[in-house]
Structure formats: C-alpha cells, structure tokens
Amino acid sequence: MSKLIQLQKYSLANDFQFYRLGSSTNQDDRKHAVLTLAGYCAAVVMAIGYIVYIAFDLYIREESMLFFPILSSILFWALGFWTILSGLKKLIFSSDTELIFSLPMPLWQAKLFNVIKLLILYLLVAAIAVFAGILLHMFILPDFWFVLLSSLLLVVILPLLVIATTFIISLAVKVLLNFLRIHSNVIEALLTFFLFLSPLLYNTYNSASLNYKDIFSNSSPLYLFGIISNSTSEVGFFNLVCILGITLALVLITGYVFTKRYAFLVASYSTSSKRKTRDSSTLSSNSLFKNLFSKELKLYLSSITYVSNTVLTPALLLIGSLAYLFNISPLLYDYTLELSIITLSSKYIFILFTTVCILLTTTTSSSLSFEGQSIWILLTSPLSLMDLAKAKIALNVLLFVPGLACAILVYTQNFSSSLLDSLLFISFTITSLLLVSIVGFFVNLKFPNYNWSSEMEVIKQGKSTIITAILSTCLLSITGILIILDFSFTFHLLLLVNVSIITFLIYKLRESSLIMD
Predict the structure, then answer these.
(1) What is the DSSP string of 352-408?
(2) What gap in Å lies between CA 318 and CA 397, rounded to an integer?
(3) Could you give the maximum distance between any two Cα atoms of the chain, in Å?
(4) How much is the pLDDT for 162?
(5) Residue 338, strand partner residues
(6) Which keywords has UniProt assigned to this entry (predicted)?
(7) Confidence of residue 280 (pLDDT cuts 50, 70, 90)
(8) Using one digit for the tens of pLDDT, what is the confidence trace for 474-492?
(9) What integer pLDDT is reported at residue 275 of this predicted model?
C-alpha cells in the first residue's frame, strides 16, 4: 500500500506540473507549469472566498445551521460537474495504464489506480473547503465538537459519493446508448450532464426565488437522500450513519464493476463513434471548405472529453433561451437582482447570461493542438492558414447557432425597446461569438502543443486554452461592467471594440503561417 501511495504522489505531482517546474530546463515548459499552477491557485482562492462569503452571509441572517447543507451541496455538484467534465473515461485507463499494470502491485490496485488518485485529490479539496468553513463557524455553531466530527465524516463521504454517483450515471448512459445503437459523443455528454444535474435543475425550477440558499440547501445530498428533512437543517448522528450507508452501497457497486467487470469497462469506454466512410467521389465533388469542415467535425466528435468541455455553454444558452421563450417561470422576466451598490433588471441579466455563454467557451483554443502528431498532414498540404481557420471557427460558431437564434428571438420579442436596440444586440452577440472564436484560434496558433499523451493536456491544461480563458474573462468583465453601468452607448462601444479586434486578428492571420518551431 505504501508503494501505491508513493506512486500516487508522483502521479499527482506530475499532473499539477510540479516536476516540470522543478526539473525542466526548457523555459517554455516552466512558464506553462507556472501558468497552470497559478490557475489552480486562483480557483482555490476564489472557492475559499465564496465559502467565506456564504459563512458570513448566513451568520448575519442568523441562518448558520444552513451552512452544512449548502456547503455539502456546493461541493457535491461542483465536484460531480468537474468529474463529468474531465471525462469518466480517465478513471478506467489513461496514458500510464500499460505502465501501471506492468508494475509489481496487486491487480485490484492497478484497476482502481486512477479512481484512487481522483479520490485523493477530492479529499484534499473537500478538506480545505469544509475546514475553512468550520473555522469561520467555530464560535457560531452549537455543539462545536459534534460539528467537527460531522465535518470529518463529510470530508470522507462526499468525494466517495461524487465519484460513485457520476460513474454509475455515466456507465448507465453508455450502456443505454449502446443498447439503442446510438453512437454520439454529443448526446452522451448532454444526457450524462442532464441526469446528474436533474435534481439541481428541478429544485431550481421549483424554487420560490433564485436565492442561492434556497437552491443549494434543497439540492444538498443530505436532502436528496432523505437524510434531513425540509423542516429542519440539523444533521444528527443517525443522519450521518444513513448517508454513510448509502455511500458505501454505491462504492461497493462501483468497486465490483471495476474489479470484476474491468474488461467490460475497457471495451465500453474505448469504443469510438461509428461513422460511415464517405465515398471518395463525394469528397472530390465537394468544396474545400466543406471537406475541411467535415474533417473538423469528425475530429471534434471523436473525443468525449473534447465534446464535454465545449458543448455545455452552447447547450446552456439554448436551454436558457428556450426557458425564456416559453416563459417557463415568471421569475425569468420579473426577477430583479439587488446587490449592495447595483440593481440589475431581468433585461440586463439576460444580456449578461447570453454574453457569458458566448464568451466562456470556445473550441478553437485547442483545435490546432488537437490535431496532435498528425499535424504534419496539414503542414504538407497545399492549404492556406485562412482556409484552415475558417473551418475551425465555423465549427465553434455552428455549436452556438441554435442557442443564439433563440436568444435573439427572446430579446427582440421581450426586451428590445426599438429596432435599433434589436439590431445592436444582434450585431453585438454575433461579433462576440466571432471574436472569441478567432481569438482562440490565434492564441492556439501562437502556443500550439502537438506532442501530448492525454487529451486533457490540450483541452483543459494547454497554454493556449488557459490564455484564451484569461482573455475571455477579461473581455467578459469589461462587458459586464459596461452593461451593469447601463451607459446609453454600451452596445455601440462594445460593437466597435469587437469589430476592431476581429479586423486586426484577421489581418494578422493572413500574414501568419502554420509552421512549427
């Protein structure tokens, strides 16, 4: 067991770029490691800051007993969301799987190696989050020692519950789609997300307000599994024993599948989407753009990790816009967000929602790197960089077309004050989508990574992805501030900025070439 823990420490240190930072002599590798670690640290700081905010907000409102349900809910949904986003496939095998199975360790440890690694990581995250909140409540919550004991149990229970639940849902979706002979990574990703998040979505729909306390407290796993009732938020010893029993049952099911049906898991998760081979005469008769776009679409759909990390915001924009369009809840049009210094009406909330969905994710930030070592095919072909850029940018635009069309329809029907206002909103959203698509492609062109062993290295941890995310966040912050301030020339100014940056980047792309250093 000590050798397993030592190997886990080495693997985690490698995943978090510590070894690259300490031992690499390549300056670019060290910069990439620093950038990756800075991103992780920023995420941890923001998460702790949110916990601090929740703790003091509940204390001021004399609702401190809601802290446990809310914190457990946030951890459960956030870690589960992250697990599915990262891909359940990596729990079964990774680039190191063959090496791990060749090591002198028990077979069950080799089969569960990736699960144990993820469990260790989630234990650390849960420990930081729970004990940060407990320290803040040291002199607030009654029965502090019981609360401390409960915290220790939750730190262990929540990671196990998250991993077991997401794995069982993912496997059920995989088996169902295989039975129905449906081989689509997009459908698989969306169905897995929907099934996992359905309790959270249901409670949000039935919530009397959009207050985080109502949504997260009622969506806590403590409520979902019947451990505590809506009439009281106190967590007793019997409640913890119940959730421990439920968790153990799910963990035993997961452990059995991994240890006894591992070959079935490998066969299920290693199957790629089946597609009919196109006839060569059909390809020759199509235009260059159609061929490149078809190739790009196949490359995108070939990876469940790629799809899972980029399809969420287009799907969220479509679902959210349809909810507005069919007026599913009166809160959508009547809700006003009141903060300490600003008040946001439903109109500006919708504009921010649309902008966040458009700018938050782009496929182009990793599209060049995702070619991998087969990039030589593009390098030796008589293709211009602009031809390649058009196909990759068109894929990202296509993902957002259904949601963007619904969003435009919602705005023009319900929020627009004039024809000019409608035209400005349409122009702003379309140019914002083109902008983030071109920015992602341009950044990936400047910081490509074709020598990777795991899809996660380019999709979530690649330098171009991180830089694009930072640029998108900055652009999103500026857009949000201007919209919140409600300047009369906000759309005019943002539209001018979008068009100027797009023009500049297209000019730079025409001067660039696809040449590796």
Answers:
(1) HHHHHHHHH--GGGTTTGGGGGGHHHHHTSS--HHHHHHHHHHHHHHHHHHHHHHHH
(2) 13
(3) 76
(4) 92
(5) 343
(6) Membrane, Transmembrane, Transmembrane helix
(7) very low
(8) 888 888 888 777 766 778 8
(9) 40
Q: How far is CA 435 from CA 119, 360, 427, 468, in A?
A: 39, 12, 12, 11
State pTM to two decimals.
0.74
Q: What is the 3-state secondary structure (H, E, C) of 188-208?
A: HHHHHHHHHHHHHHHHHHHCC
Burial class (CB within 10 angstroms; exposed 0-12, middle 13-18, buried 19+) of 237: exposed
Alpha carbon distance 5, 327 (integer Å): 53
Residues across the chain: 517
Provide mean pLDDT across the span 284-290. 66
Structure tokens at 85: 């986003």
Identity at 221, one-letter amino acid code: P
Q: Distance between CA atoms of 298 and 391, rounded to whole angstroms?
A: 12
**Of 44, 43, 22, nearest to 33 (Cα)?**
22
Q: How many CA atoms lie within 13 A of 398 on its CB side?
A: 12
Q: What confidence category does residue 282 fall into, taking pLDDT thresholds of 50, 70 and 90?
A: very low
Interatomic CA distance for residues 229 and 234, integer angstroms:
9
- What six digits make up the tokens of 98? 């063959």
Mean pLDDT of 47-61: 80
The pair of three-digit structure tokens given for residue 112, joined into one six-digit string? 């569960």
Q: Rounded to whole angstroms, how far apart are CA atoms 373 and 392?
A: 18
Using CA atoms, how far apart are residues 333 and 485, in angstroms rounded to an integer?
20
Candidate from 115-124, 128-137, 296-305, 448-457 with smallest mean pLDDT: 128-137
| Tokens standing for residue 422 | 């409608």
55 close to 141: Cβ distance less than 8 angstroms: no
Q: Where are the domains of the chain?
A: 64-271, 287-517
